[in-house]
Amino acid sequence: MMRKHSSHIEAGSSSCCSGTCYCSKKVKVTICVVIWTVIAVIVALILAVIIKAATLQELFERMELGARDDPVFMSATEQEILERSQRLVDAISYRTISFSGTNLSLEAMTDFGTFLERVFPNLHDSDFVTFTPINTYSRLYRIEGTEKTLNPYLLCAHMDVVPEGDFDLWTHDPFDAGIVTESDGQDYIFGRGAIDDKHAVLGIMEALEYKVVNKEQPKRTFYIGFGHDEEVSGYLGAAEISITLEKMLKDNGEELDFLLDEGMFVVADIIPGINVPLIYIGVAEKGWAVVDLDAEGDQVHSSTPPLESSIGILAHGVANMEDNKQPSMFGKGPEIDTLRYAAPHATFLLKMILGNLWLFSGLVSSALELSSQTDSIQRTTTAVTIFNAGVKENVVPSQAHAVVNHRIHPSDNLEDVLELDRENADRVKVTLRDSFPPSEVSSYSNDVIPFQIVVNSALEVFPDAKPVPGLMVANTDTFHYKNLTDKIYRFTPVYNLPEDIARFHGIDERISVDIYSKVVQFYYRLMVNADFDVKIAPTAQVEVKPEEVEEFLEILEESDYESPINNTDSNLLPLTKVMEESDENSANETDSHLMILQDIPEEPNENPSNETDSGLPPSQDILEEDFDAMPVNETYSDMLPLESAPKDLDLYDLTPEEETFSNRTID
Ligand SMILES: CCCCCCCC/C=C\CCCCCCCC(=O)N[C@@H](CC(C)C)C(=O)O
């Protein structure tokens, strides 16, 4: 047998089996084919992975909003930066702490409101800013645009803060630290609220105050909503702001285009292998659930402890919950696009992995799990936040109670989450106390102008960072506004390293003077960039140059029309004034107006620099023959049809020339 084997080895040494087996030639050929096929597939896969990595394209394409290369910022001398920082320091000194839904610091909140009015006097006094107190403490502002806009937006922030926690762990007083120079040589504004969320309240106010002082009334109307109880779910603040705002929008014939609230931030060094900071925009938000856990046991003398106490039973349940996490949903929510958008900026090795998630998603999910911060984007999280039991050191208590706070991934559902809780804590009573579902995902494709406005504004202050959409892993007031718009973004341009993220609700919350200055500039640029997409009501006043008025009057004269207008000094020609009633003709006129509105191409304005200051295209450029080619915002297609114009808008009998004239000037 041994001999036979060795002779076979000699005879078959050139075969692919190296002559070590007794296979027939046919089997050998088959094995060879299989082996080579496997090798070929592996080589092809490796090649595909490498090619994919080498050809990764940037997914975010920046839309020109008008001032890309040379954005004009607020003036920011050293003195101005210092004064702005000092105002944030002062804001932090108000202890506007929300302890619970029924324990808010209302006196401090009243004082904080007075403080805002004192340090931003011009905006509170402005003709185009209207302030409405909501539920006494929350604040809603309407900033009237120069145009009668149909698509205002909302900037949100909240004025309350969480308690400081363990005061002794803070390096500086959480409400009275001022500006501190740290060992890295940077100046920081320290204190509770520095990044959550008084930087946003003050940043928005600074930008608006600046615009008011410099007579930069925006073209586009917008709203500002500052809640006073966000940290305890916003039912008294944002929820009420939302109700009032809905009514205001309705009364003004407006629809909220988008809203921007706090949320995610600029984050660096969060994923090893991605060496650029990421502008992480929260395009969706996790759901929320609060679960009570109750265990029971015998109450006995501590000298004869039971085999299992209520505390032991509860502790086991809680430990199981931490060990058997809720399942990963990687690939089923916005987290996959966070990585896909970041991939082109990764090292080549990481590009091979992130560029080929179809192959490596398991690996990536395991890697995300290594840090609690990155893990939070891929699953429902479980945090044990309260654990209570016992009254005396020698009494074994009969009851133990804990509270778990889940943040629910958008692809998960509450029933499944609770089922796993009950499996993990099988000898514990598990009761759902409170919950709300995850949000919808707001659109972030490249043609979504609100997304572009937010990202462009962030890029203007952080030009080297790369935008990525993603999941907001905590919660905001936006839940209360979800009926008002489907474009909800959660972001402020605070710059965080992973260790800084722990400062939210943690110890030594702070923002550098430099970054705070960027926060202010971000809101200012956002107010400017938002003017790019002004959708103007068809009933808006028409802005006409004096020479055009003359031309108009000539046309009227030629057509024997007796003009009711004598106000040639005014360069504002209200449409309603040039229209006289004609009931039978109004239907036709409506059609003709509608036809013009519908004929206008839907592409976004390629050349917004052609706009005049008022946002209208220069009227001398809008000759009749040019009408089709006129650069317009896509917004025209969304204009209200004239049927929905206010009832007092009378349509009059126009000659063809008049009609041309009046139509061409409607913007
Ligand atoms: C690949 C990139 C991974 C990025 C991971 C980022 C991890 C972020 C971690 C923490 C985010 C902190 C966000 C702080 C939000 C503060 C707002 C807040 O506290 N809201 C309350 C609202 C609640 C309804 C009372 C909350 O508890 O969420």
TrEMBL record:
GO biological process: amide biosynthetic process; amide catabolic process; amino acid metabolic process; proteolysis
Start and end residues of each Peptidase M20 dimerisation domain: 284-420
Keyword entries, A-Z: Hydrolase, Membrane, Metal-binding, Protease, Transmembrane, Transmembrane helix, Zinc
SUPFAM superfamilies: Bacterial exopeptidase dimerisation domain, Zn-dependent exopeptidases
Molecular function, one GO term: peptidase activity
TM annotation in the entry: 29-51
Residue span of region Disordered: 601-667
Function (record text): Secreted enzyme that regulates the endogenous N-fatty acyl amino acid (NAAs) tissue and circulating levels by functioning as a bidirectional NAA synthase/hydrolase. It condenses free fatty acids and free amino acids to generate NAAs and bidirectionally catalyzes the reverse hydrolysis reaction. Some of these NAAs stimulate oxidative metabolism via mitochondrial uncoupling, increasing energy expenditure in a UPC1-independent manner. Thereby, this secreted protein may indirectly regulate whole body energy expenditure.
Family: Belongs to the peptidase M20A family.
Protein's UniProt name: Peptidase M20 dimerisation domain-containing protein
Species of origin: Tigriopus californicus
Organism placement in taxonomy: Eukaryota, Metazoa, Ecdysozoa, Arthropoda, Crustacea
